[in-house]
Amino acid sequence: MKQPCVFFDRDGTLNEDVGYLDRLERLVLYPDGIDAVRLLKRAGYLVAVVTNQAGVAHGLYGEETVRAIHRHIAARFEAGGAAIDGFYYCPHLVDAPVAAYRVACDCRKPLPGLIRQAERDLDVDVARSFVVGDRWRDIEMGRAVGARAVLVRTGYGRTEESRPPAGVTADAIVDNVTQATVWILREDRR
Ligand SMILES: [Mg+2]
Ligand SMILES: [Zn+2]
After folding, report:
1. 93 pairs with which residues across the strands?
2. Residues of the chain with pLDDT under 50
3. Closest CA to 79 of 120, 33, 23, 44
């Protein structure tokens, strides 16, 4: 049976946005992500991470680094009783310096390709799903597929809130992933 999913952006949402996260030593998880994911899993949600990693297209680090960071995040969350169901990333850029990644893909947010990949892998009920992120492109991606979308004020969120793009609105704007989770679980009961 299809299950709803909460799609979390990574940088600026689950961990501090340090610019291009090119090595594990620079990863700083926000303190509340594990509790948030545990609550959502307990409420019956799948949880996936969806992240643009243009640093790969720029040649700043490789996909192996992205995957190693995701393995590390997965282990940290799992140890906290908050297993993440999938990690999806876009390494592409239409004008990438690294030729192998120079492609007009369908998975660079705000395009919804990462959600579509998860939908197939995890049997996601997208209409009952949510996106949580610190950039308008996260919100735009969620709204494009009929999911609800929550902007968090961590990372770039506060700046993004001050300059909303035309034609894009969030279903909620909250301080962090804890508040996003509270909002989602309240919506869920309506
Ligand atoms: Mg972000
Ligand atoms: Zn892509």
Report:
1. 102
2. none
3. 33
Token code pair at residue 148: 């609800």
Q: Which ligand is nearest to the CA of 21?
A: 1
pLDDT of residue 190: 74
Ligand number nearest CA of 51 is 1
Whether the model pTM is above 0.85: yes
124 near 99, Cβ under 8 Å? no
Which residues does the annotation mark as catalytic?
A: 9, 11
CB 184 within 8 A of CB 40: yes
Instruction: Cis check for the bond before 110: say yes or no (omega within 30 of 0).
Output: yes
CA distance 30 to 176: 9
CA dihedral (156, 162, 168, 170) positive or negative: positive
* Helix 33-42 vs helix 63-79: crossing angle, to nearest 10: 70
Query: How many whole angstroms from 37 Cα to the centroid of ligand 1?
Result: 17
Distance from Cα 1 to the centre of ligand 1, integer Å: 30
What protein residues have CB closer than 5 angstroms to ion ligand 2? 90, 92, 105, 107-108
AA letter at 181: T
Element (H, E) at 55: helix 54-57
Q: Are 109 and 88 in contact (CB under 8 A)?
A: no
CA angle 158, 129, 27 (to 5 degrees): 50
